[in-house]
From TrEMBL:
The organism of origin for this protein: Flavobacterium aureirubrum
Assigned protein family: Belongs to the peptidase M43B family.
Superkingdom of origin: Bacteria
Alphabetically ordered keywords of this record: Disulfide bond, Hydrolase, Metal-binding, Metalloprotease, Protease, Signal, Zinc
Annotated Peptidase M43 pregnancy-associated plasma-A domain residues: 178-268
Protein's name according to its UniProt entry: Zinc-dependent metalloprotease
GO MF annotation: an example: metallopeptidase activity
Length: 277
């Protein structure tokens, strides 16, 4: 294994009441504690998924051969990274209290968009209410000057969630209630395209998703097909629907490939020097 890279994360609950930040008792204190614990649950899911320690990876591995019986040539990606809720302020001054977790309440991050200059150097997560059935979105391999992934209140983290007052509630909702929307969005943040980004053509390294060990196709997959039941529109071969960069349900995606991990690490190396404590 390689050295672990620390990923300092800040979580912004934009639709929560700002008064949660200073609450010392009562409902607001318990809601703040609930939301901080919910953020930690999401961080734990990201760490499992990006380090291939997720329990449902047993769906992939054939106990006889140690690799997939359906995709024998495909290896599992392992990033050797550690997502952590940051506890140190950065030089530009975010208002984060030194030593306190980087979790904000009612802060209108980037006026609702996915960039806020005050949060440079962090891997930001913006939790807000999205319309039109969008679960989340992310820039593709951005610089670290304040960009973040954005996720709807109902698809952040896992478990029973935190009921607040009205729009402040954050309730993981099936079938996207295992925190995998953020696994997917951080894949984009780390410069991955969708696995269904088109036919690879002559050069798999520069067309389709530009990753050679993900089977090419140009159609996304939904819900939860059997592992060997979906076929490429380009080649007729089986598609890797269980990959985090497809559109299946949370319970049915459980792996990155080694080629995806290599591409993500290459992007990480371009921003490494900008990462703030
Ligand atoms: N549709 C979203 C996107 O393209 C996210 C899909 C996440 N899928 C999931 N099972 N959580 O970024
Ligand atoms: Zn996507
Ligand atoms: Ca590919």
């Amino acid at each position: 294994a390689n050295a672990i890279t620390r990923i300092p994360v800040a979580v912004h609950y934009t639709t929560s009441s700002a008064s949660l930040a200073t609450a010392t008792s009562g409902t607001n204190l318990s809601l703040r504690n609930c939301l901080i614990a919910l953020a930690q649950t999401q961080i734990n899911i990201l760490n499992a998924d990006y380090n291939a320690t997720n329990a449902d990876l047993n769906l992939w591995t054939n106990s006889q051969t140690g690799s997939s019986q359906f995709f024998p040539g495909v290896g599992i990606g392992d990033m050797d990274i550690q997502f952590e809720i940051a506890t140190q302020n950065h030089p530009l001054g975010s208002g984060l209290a030194e030593g306190q977790p980087a979790v904000t309440f009612g802060y209108n991050f980037g006026a609702g968009q996915n960039r806020d200059a005050n949060w440079t150097g962090y891997f930001n997560i913006v939790v807000r209410s999205l319309s039109g059935g969008i679960l989340g979105f992310s820039p593709l391999g951005p610089p670290l000057n304040g960009f973040g992934v954005t996720i709807d209140n109902n698809y952040f983290s896992s478990g029973t969630g935190c009921s607040g007052t009205g729009s402040g509630s954050v309730i993981p909702t099936a079938p996207f209630n295992r925190g995998r929307t953020l696994t997917h969005e951080f894949g984009h943040f780390f410069n991955l395209d969708h696995t269904f980004d088109g036919c690879d053509g002559a050069n798999c390294a520069s067309s389709g998703d530009s990753v050679c060990d993900t089977p090419q196709t140009d159609t996304e997959t939904y819900e939860c097909p059997a592992a060997d039941a979906t076929f490429s529109t380009c080649t007729g071969e089986q598609v890797l629907t269980m990959n985090y960069m497809d559109y299946v349900d949370d319970a049915c995606m459980y792996m990155f490939t080694t080629g995806q991990a290599t591409r993500m690490t290459a992007w990480l190396n371009t921003v490494r020097s900008q990462i703030r404590p």
